[in-house]
Amino acid sequence: MFKKLVYTIALCLSASAFAQIYDLPIIFIDSKQKCIDYYTIEKIPATIKVLDGKTNNVADSSKAIQYDIGINVRGLTSAAFPKPNYGIEFHDSTGKDINVSLLGLPPSDDWVLHGTYVDKSMIRNTFAHWLFRQTGRYSPRTKYFDLYINGVYRGVYVLIERIKRGKYRINISKLKETDIEGEELTGGYIWEFDTKIDRHGAGILDYSMSDFKTSDGINVVYRYPKKEKITKEQDEYLKNYLNELEALYKDGKNGSGYENYVDVASAVDYILLQELTHHVDAYVYNIFMYKPKDKTDEHGNKTVGKTTLGPPWDFELAFKNSFKPDSGNNDKKDTNSTIGFGFQSTSNWIIEKNYNSFNHSMGLGSYKLTNWLIGIWRDSVFQTKMSKRWAELRSGVWHTKTIDSYLDSMKTFLTSAAERNFKRWPNLGEPSGTNDEDLEPMKYCNTTDKPRMAVGGFNADTWDGEFEHVRNKIKERMKVMDELLGFTEPGKPVAFEPIIHEPDWRAEMDDTSKVHIHSDNFSRLSPTNYFVLNGNQLEVRTDIGGTFAIVDLNGAVLYKTQIKTGVTILSIPAKARNKVWIATLNGKMMNR
């Protein structure tokens, strides 16, 4: 009787969804009568269709273009969620990877479909990546959509770009198999400080799987090139390079010279983001880095490719979503079975907490924070740069009003989608996690034998409560960081947004009428619009030109001039020297 009732409910839900008009794009996946569940580790053949109009109807799915894809279930713990994350790769008729633009984003051959199951605000990853892009650096772009698999509605998902090399992602040079000496050997690497843990076997976790270990025992996983494609010379180069960096903090050394190895500005922005989002996994898991090539120009001037921190990744448990309730704090509901880390606190720096906990207390082997990163963090010069950068960001693109404006727009945008999602997944107001019941289960699949485990520490009764929890927590965190860094927020932001001016990826032919500026700094989201500070001089590079201004943190104009496209050399006015200021171009924030 119960099975018949569930089947009837599923039919009613499916019939209702078929007639519904959606305000988000719809993606349809057909697994060709094969299961996609916890045990789908390797990608299996499937097809995908995408409807991306102003409004979309399931009945119009036949009008969508169909592609061949491979699909699998991503993650470790999250793979056992009833609404898991998926990875997809686009293939041509021969099975070769092809680049496809999905939901208006620049083309790529593989993507992540994020389920936001235990992130009931539905915005944590989207919000965190937006915050990092506001600094002028690349962070994976995101798009929301409704997902159907094998005709079954799976709820609202987030499309997220994979972290990989490419013109519109991490824009570093290709590292070819022939690049085994000289400057060609020095860059083109993307790696991750983390381990390889698969879901095979009896669930025994091996915390030591990696492509290699550094001298400090940190696990390194190659992301580009992959391990199977990297040469012996390239493998040895990166090992030696990271070991040299670690050696700066060994045998009583104080780290002198770290700026010759690390892009310090990227480290500042990366750390500030991890701290601002109150990211429980910060500095320990999913730490992506990359290194451009060293380059010497025709005049003999050498640019050293340095380790660049980022892009950031995986914020599902950020903004206080994986914590036990604080003493006396009644805005959370929790359960003893919930994953949470009691050592975390909004009153201190997470980098210090995680270093002390993972390196000395938790006993997770190579899951620890790198000694050179904590060493850089504790350097007084670095702390000064971080304080100045915090003041700069908080006076503009991270101002409370800027963040409120973004969150208000996202709340309006997602209201209808959230209503649909939580009708499909009625898990508000209770802990959620692995092996939760699904009233409309996937076709062709069986349940896993994994134990029930709740994940997350906050469970509001409404989506609005979940959403506002994120808003409240970032404001609490900003207040704490303002106090720690000695900053007072101005009444209004100096600039609401950064300059993001990428080439149009849709253009097949290069427009030779545009001004092209060579840049060796590939960490920028706008690689042709930034400035370089050399003493009391500014070297401003732009391919759009316009009104350039230097303003103080309250918006008072200290200097203003018109600049053309190309490179412009300016002197910093005396009244702006030795002060924290913001450079703007056409009213938008320019980044160094």
Question: How would you describe this structure in keywords?
Answer:
single chain; 592 residues; seven-stranded mixed β-barrel; 9 helices; 25 strands; disordered N terminus
Task: Explain what the structure shows.
Helix content is 23%, strand content 21%. The chain has 592 residues and is of the alpha+beta class. The protein has nine helices and 25 strands. Helix 8 packs antiparallel against helix 9. The strands form seven sheets. It has a seven-stranded mixed barrel with strand order 2-3-5-6-7-9-8. It has a five-stranded antiparallel beta sheet with strand order 11-12-10-13-16. It has a four-stranded antiparallel beta sheet with strand order 22-21-24-25, with no helix packed on it.
| Average pLDDT figure | 85
Percentage of β-strand residues: 15-25%
Please count the beta strands (DSSP E, at least 2 residues each): 25
Helical fraction: 10-25%
Query: From the helix content, strand content and strand pairing, which structural class follows?
Result: alpha+beta
Give the termini distance in whole angstroms: 66 Å
Total helical segments? 9
Radius of gyration from CA coordinates:
24 Å
How would you classify the quaternary structure? single chain
Unreliable spans are 1-15, 201-205, 323-347, 508-522
Q: What summary fits the major beta sheet?
A: 7 strands, mixed, barrel
Widest β-sheet, arrangement of strands: 2-3-5-6-7-9-8
Shape: globular
